[in-house]
Amino acid sequence: MGVYLTFKRDMGLLGLWIGLTVAMLCTSTAGGLIILWADWDREMEKVVERLKGDKNSGGDGESTEGV
């Protein structure tokens, strides 16, 4: 949008800043909606399962091969 406003609509630097501002508003709105609509209990369950899997496989994430 910033490139369009800057070059096609001949708004110059102001068009670029408006485009960047609109992009930031869109991404922050989408991020906020994701946070509000997330099933946090399910996300917590997934983290616990992942941690249990890490604990059973050694847990530190580092390989000792070649040492």
3D architecture notes:
By secondary structure, the protein is mostly helical. The protein has one domain. Helices cover 73% and strands 0% of the residues. It has three helices and no strands. α1 packs antiparallel against α2. The radius of gyration is 23 Å and the shape is elongated. It starts with a helix and ends in an 11-residue tail after the last helix. The model has no long low-confidence stretch (mean pLDDT 86).
Secondary structure elements and their pairing?
Elements: H1 2-8, H2 13-37, H3 40-56
Helix pairs in contact: 1-2
Largest sheet geometry = none
Structural category = mainly alpha
Order of helices and strands: HHH
The assembly state of the depicted protein chains is single chain
Number-wise, the strands total: 0
How many discrete structural domains?
Answer: 1
Gross morphology is elongated
Mean pLDDT metric: 86
The residue ranges in which pLDDT falls below 50 over 5 or more consecutive positions are none
Question: What's the tally of helices?
Answer: 3
The rounded distance between the terminal residues' Cα atoms is 53 Å
How much strand content do the residues show?
A: under 5%
Helix content: over 70%
